[in-house]
Write a structure and sequence with these properties.
It comes from Chitinivorax tropicus. The protein is α+β, with helices and mostly antiparallel strands. The protein is built from one helix and nine strands. β8 and β9 form a beta hairpin.
Length: about 110
């Protein structure tokens, strides 16, 4: 496969993933002053969704949920997202691994 063909395949793959992530229900979370806000996210059960995370603090953060097997490290000022698979009704904890004493919350699937 030529370099051009390989690059086209990679570009189409990336565009497809971006379009897939854009179509999901999206919930926003902001990190500032050592906290992730909101501390509780209510989401629909049984449906895939996306959490957009923006780090407005002056230090790095790490959004992490052991129950959901998700983690995302963001530098100061960075934005990113995680896609969460469909959840059963219930409560799922998350925290900022760099600020565990002040930054904890839960995702409630109903």
């Amino acid at each position: 496969m030529s370099h051009l063909s390989l690059m086209l395949v990679m570009l189409c793959s990336l565009l497809g993933q971006a379009a897939w992530a854009e179509a999901l229900p999206t919930f926003k979370m902001i990190a500032r002053n050592g906290k992730l806000e909101p501390s509780t996210l209510s989401v629909p059960a049984g449906q895939r969704f996306k959490i957009e995370i923006e780090n407005q603090s002056n230090s790095a953060i790490e959004f992490e949920s052991l129950q959901l097997r998700q983690e995302k490290v963001l530098a100061p000022g960075a934005k990113s997202f995680v896609v969460i698979h469909p959840l059963k009704p219930g409560s799922y904890k998350f925290f900022d691994e760099y600020h565990p004493a002040t930054s904890q919350g839960q995702i409630v699937a109903k």
